Amino acid sequence: MNNLDFGNHPLFSWYVALMAVSGIAMVILGAINVGGQKGGWRILNILAGAAFAGYAYYLGFVFDEDVYHIYFQAFILPVLLIAGSVKAVVNRRTAPAAPQPAQPPAPAAHDPNAQPIQPSPVAPAPQPAQPAQPAPTIPTIPPARPVADNPYAQPQQPPHTN
Q1: Which residue pairs from 10-17 have beta carbons closer than 8 angstroms and sit at least 24 positions apart in sequence?
Q2: Which of 102, 99, 103 is nearest to 116 (CA)?
């Protein structure tokens, strides 16, 4: 039985279609390591995607009742997982490449007597001793004095009561 009828029940049909698309997208993003995600996130993508796709199949082809509930909150998880995959791809592309160690130049191919150049061990240059720096001093703050033109900052006489 096919429950997808965009003419009579467009909301339900779009709900099922979006569940299927988001489920398939999560399975694909979890199955292929697009952004170098960790294994746990990839497994979560695959499991949640399979659940969404399976539920979409159930609603579209097995479900035969007249009453159904649509939970749009269910689309928060696919949005978060797909956004995490996209973020991992962007971070992987913008991350600077690790510096490659310098390779010695290869001997010329036309010179049969050339010897390969061995890299010479380079000792680190000695660092000059740095003079001891005095401890930082904390500036002293003068005590607060009342301001002459501010009556609230001046000591007040208690009111006289007779």
Answers
A1: 11/70, 12/59, 12/68, 12/70, 15/59, 15/70, 16/56, 16/59, 16/60, 17/56
A2: 103
Dist. CA 21–CA 13, nearest whole Å:
12
Give the distance from CA 57 to its chain's centroid: 32
The vertex-48 CA angle with 91 and 40, nearest 5°, equals 50
pLDDT digits (tens, 9 = 90+) for 12-35: 888 899 999 999 988 988 888 776
Nearest 5°: the CA angle 22, 85, 87 is: 130
Residue written as token pair 């939970």: 71
Give tens-digit pLDDT for 56-75: 999 888 988 878 888 888 88
